[in-house]
Design a protein that fits this description.
Layout: H1 2-13, H2 15-19, E1 23-27, H3 53-56, H4 62-66, E2 74-78, H5 103-120, E3 123-132, H6 136-161, H7 169-178, E4 188-194, H8 224-238
Parallel strand pairs: 3-4
Antiparallel strand pairs: 1-2, 2-3
Amino acid sequence: MLEDVVLECIRDAYTHQLAKATAQVVLTEDKWSTVYNNLHTSIPSTIAGNTESIFTGDILEDDDTFGKFTQPDLLLVTNGTLPVEDFPTTSRAKPRPLHMNSLANRDRQFQAFITHCAANGLKYEFFDVHFSHKDESSLESNERVKRNGYQKAFWDFAEKSQDPTHRYYHTLQLMKRLNHTSGGEPKVTPFGVNIFGVLSKDCQTIRNPISRNPPLPKLPQCSTTMDRLVDQNNTKNRQ
């Protein structure tokens, strides 16, 4: 999985913080139940769909409940870590139980995650990893759709949750505290690679949140797969 490669690259960049338990990166993949380092209960970036269907049982698709562009692939937490008893991850010894990633559990975990971050001064951001079999223009087009989609999903959520009687009103207020420079909108960075090894433009912004660490192409222990992709991308840019 490309998501595993990106996860290891971010881990390499945060080696010192991870050792001091001041950072954590995990998969928050909702569809892959057998991968490791994946949260037992995926955490959405926001919830913009018809969540009332969770309680009525009239659920057809995840997108109907949470809305599209609400479930990125990776979660990076800084200024601390998540308690393993409340946010367990998969391993060979502890695969994801079938019931753990239900829509109702993901709804509760979303609110619990925001509450925990706010109470403990944690920072967080997401990454959406995607792969394209087409050329660079298609890669950038896909990324633009994702970027706009995540943005719209949050503002749809925010509009609905402004009402003090709404079930997500308190969560929205906490998100505004946590992400105060963006009106509460969480940062979601699309990370795109195409079949030719070209990295998307937004993918390069992964260097910004880790700017105090070695740049991505220089990570000494980064996966050879990502090294090859970055080398190909750098070569193309020099041509």
